[in-house]
Amino acid sequence: SAVISQKPSRDICQRGTSLTIQCQVDSQVTMMFWYRQQPGQSLTLIATANQGSEATYESGFVIDKFPISRPNLTFSTLTVSNMSPEDSSIYLCSVVLGQQYFGPGTRLTVT
Amino acid sequence: GIQVEQSPPDLILQEGANSTLRCNFSDSVNNLQWFHQNPWGQLINLFYIPSGTKQNGRLSATTVATERYSLLYISSSQTTDSGVYFCAVEGQAGTALIFGKGTTLSVSS
Q: Within the 42-71 window of chain B, which residues sit less than 8 Å (CB to CB) from chain A?
């Protein structure tokens, strides 16, 4: 199994600012995934982050808006840039260790 | 890509009732998982079940991979079972999960 922590757990931000979300895993993993869950919706994959290479983004998500870092095998960050109210969501990271495990999420509200 | 459909979208139960949630998927999958998202937003792993049947207390799940569906059974439901239940599939090993839209369960006392 995997234990995943995320920081911050929640935040309220002004539009036009940026927020960096941290994801820490207690095991070394090759791939980490970042998901977004908009209010009342299901989870949508933002990008796949491999250590030592550029993240791979899904259709509709771009690096300028959601830059990702993956400096080692246990840590990753997702930045939500130039935020607007439409970015208000829960952001979750996940890893694969046999099955997939999710962090507790970061609840972001943009005003 | 693989499509995941869950039914019903909403379910209202009295405490003590039983229920069955269904997940259909459009192609063969490497993995299937059921999650419960509690009212605070946390995703809780219920089952890792690419095939076969598993049970954990009042919950059980069955996946029939050849027919591309999975069922989640909740028996003797309790108010703490309320929340959203997601089915998610992994197309190829090591790839991200594709989520269904979820079933919102409300259990009243």
A: 42-43, 45, 48
Q: Report, as an integer, the average pLDDT of A75-101.
A: 96
Q: CB of B97 within 8 Å of any CB in chain A?
A: yes
CB pair distance less than 8 Å for A42 and B45: no
SS3 (DSSP) at B65 = helix
Q: What is the pLDDT along chain B (109 residues), one digit of tens a residue?
A: 899 999 999 999 999 999 999 999 999 999 999 999 988 888 999 999 999 999 999 999 999 999 999 999 999 999 999 999 999 999 888 889 999 999 999 999 9
Sequence-distant (≥ 6) Cβ neighbours of residue B81 within 8 angstroms: B36, B74, B105, B107
For chain A, percent of residues with pLDDT exceeding 70: 100
How far apart are the C-alpha atoms of B86 and B102, rounded to whole Å?
5
- Chain B, nearest residue to A43 by Cα: B99
**Cβ of A67: how many Cβ atoms within 10 Å?**
16
Rounded Cα distance, A20 and A66, in Å: 9
Residue-wise pLDDT for A87-96, tens only, equals: 999 999 999 9
Strands A89-97 and A4-7: unpaired
Q: What's the gap in Å between the CA of B88 and the closest CA on chain A?
A: 10
Measured between CA atoms, how close is A41 to chain B, in angstroms?
7
- Cβ-based contacts of A98 with chain B (< 8 Å): 48
